[in-house]
Prior knowledge:
Elements: E1 3-5, H1 17-23, E2 29-34, E3 40-46, H2 49-56, H3 64-70, E4 75-81, H4 84-98, E5 114-118, E6 125-129, E7 137-140, H5 146-160, H6 167-170, H7 178-181, H8 195-209, H9 213-229, H10 233-253, E8 263-271, E9 274-283, E10 286-293, H11 303-314, E11 323-326, H12 333-344, E12 349-351, H13 356-394, E13 403-411, E14 414-424, E15 427-428, E16 434-437, H14 446-464, E17 471-475, H15 478-491, E18 497-502, E19 513-515, H16 530-564, H17 571-581, H18 584-589, H19 592-596, H20 603-614
Parallel strand pairs: 8-11, 11-12, 13-17, 17-18
Antiparallel strand pairs: 1-4, 2-3, 2-4, 5-6, 5-7, 8-9, 9-10, 13-14, 14-15, 14-16, 18-19
Helix pairs in contact: 4-12, 5-10, 8-9, 9-10, 13-16, 14-15
Amino acid sequence: MQARSERPExxxxxxxxxxxxxxxxxxxxxxxxxxxxxxxxxxxKARNLKRRVSSYFQKTRHSPKTLAMLAQVARxxxxxxxxxxxxxxxxxxxxxxHRPHYNILLRDDKSYPYLYIDTSSAFPRMSLHRGTQRGKGxxxxxxxxxxxxxxxxxxxxxxxxxxxxxxxxxxxxxRACLHYQIRRCSGxxxxxxxxxxxxxxxxxxxxFLQGKSDEAIRTxxxxxxxxxxxxxxxxxxxxxxQIAALSKIQERQYVAQAGGGDFDVLAAVEADGQWVVxxxxxxxxxxxxxxAIFPQHPDTARGSEVMAAFLMQYYADxxxxxxVLVNVLPRAAASLASxxxxxxxxxxxxxxxxxxxxxxxxxxxxxxxxxALRQRAQRADGGRRRMRLLQELFSLDRLPERVECFDISHTxxxxxxxxxxxxxxxxxxxxxxxxxxxxxxxxxxxxxxxxQAVSRRYGRLLQEGLSLPDIVFIDGGPAQVARAQAALDxxxxxxxxLCGVAKGTSRRPGLEWLHTTLWTQPRQLSSGDPALLVIQExxxxxxxxxxxxxxxxxxxxRQESELDSIGGIGPKRRVALLRAFGGLRGIRDAGVExxxxxxxxxxxxxxxxxxxxxxxxxxA
Length: 620
């Protein structure tokens, strides 16, 4: 796709709207509304740029959203494309990149997990996979959540007993693991099954995952009967158990499918001004589950607009099935289908079914969307109650919208890590959590650590023009609060309320002291006070997030520093050693000959590594 700018890139020239509108052509393309400071307010596509852009500045009635946007527009830029389909694709790319305030935005950027069967080894492995599908093997999915995929993997392990262990573990085992003992693996690592038999189980698994479940079960039934006839009752029992496991999966996931193929079913539903799009995944005749996504949108958004914006942003970097079913046809549905097909490299059918199995799938997705809205409303009620309690505790003029909390974690000053967790009316906003690897402070100086974390956090928010919280909790007493306040003062921030949450002398929950400049004296709430329970929940989440990050950083630092101290080991060899032996303990336990088997480790270096861990009497 090629696009060219209709206007030369001269940012400092005065913008003449009338001259600009007269110069516009009638080609398809994308237009961008820009504010005076240069940031993009809105991105749109047009079949006819002159007619579409001019319509914004004619004396016609606009929605309040459009009027608010036009009041901020300082200039307009356009990009001409060859076709309307190209304009659709470019519009989605620009929205995803710039996230303009007045566009409908998809806030769920998480990649979905896939079931991956790696066929690059003699005994292929079954695993969870996210991201680019470059490996040799088979990918099945997407699944709506990791939990749904893990549940399916357990059932498949019971049925086909494929291995799930890492190659470094598989190649270094001397006896079968627990999965073999509980009959979820056939034990290829120690020779309990030969390659031919393992591949036969693998083919059965692939047939089942590809939707040929009846064929797979019939094959297993034939093997069960054959084993019984030759009096191999152990083999017959194993096949019987496989059939039972596969039947259970069928009961859980089967969908009566007409016409074959893979489907995504999208239902857009609105309640009280909030839109949700529920996506259901159907692959090879089995429902893999679904996910509710709540796009950010203007108050006046219509269903066709929400669906159109959602489709192009959602499928910009995801697998597109051959069939996409929707309950609301988007604007320019034919062009959208063409654009989706262009991204997928094949034809994509976009339709609103009216009868048959596909209509029933759609009704199920609509029901799930309504349930997601109901649950979100319940969570919002709980979040508003949490904020009302904090408003009453601190006697605030208005309901707080955003609360953050900091905690510091370290081991005797080593690998000091700060956490910042964020809560809003919807509860914990985990996508906005942040960790800070603290540097250039005296080990164990929690006061300096807190000041640095607060300074870095809010310095960044100011730099990026993002919203500041109403209340910030600090895990600590008046000294930590004072250092945090000093950081805010240096940044010129006055509107944040700081509150320290200090543990009592016994450090038991319920005996915390609250320190804030709003009060002349610290306060200790009763252990059952609802406001204190809210503060404890937020503080405990900050502590959990801090200690998790600290432990990961400490473990990484210890592994890397131990190996980096050995001459001749750089990043590539370190990674190769850790992969081969599964960690530092495995390297310590390895002999010289074992070390030499790792790529890049020659005899002299292997001897040096071995001497490093054993010459000085180092233990495991």
